[in-house]
Specification:
This protein is about 0% helix and about 40% strand. The chain has strands at about 10-15, 25-30, 35-45, 50-60, 70-75, 75-80. It has a domain at about 10-80. With about 100 residues, it is mainly beta.
């Protein structure tokens, strides 16, 4: 008997280790086009009162943003964009150390 092909299939199971509302109600894995993913699901209620499942999918080989110089995007690995070293607000320009303390207004 040949090995089962699980391409484009997956399964989720009840999360028995849920400790907070932020943790998923269900967890599992999914294969899409030969790439394995983690699946998380939360049971929610719409404004009209209908229950539904909200899903989150992440590649299993996705690396942490802070621990790698590369980012996995789909089936390719790309260099991480350089973080901006510029502060949020621009510092004042010029040398203000020798200004008079008296303001003209």
């Amino acid at each position: 008997m040949s090995e089962y092909d699980n391409t484009n299939s997956g399964a989720i199971f009840k999360n028995d280790n849920k400790e907070s509302e932020r943790h998923p109600d269900y967890k599992g894995s999914l294969n899409v086009g030969g790439v394995d993913h983690w699946v998380s699901s939360w049971i929610k209620v719409s404004k009209s009162g209908q229950e539904y499942m909200s899903l989150s999918v992440k590649p299993k080989d996705e690396r942490k943003e802070s621990s790698s110089a590369e980012v996995v995007r789909g089936d390719t690995i790309q260099p991480r964009p350089a973080a901006s070293t510029r502060p949020f607000a621009s510092p004042p320009r010029g040398d203000f150390r020798n200004m008079d303390d008296d303001l003209p207004f």
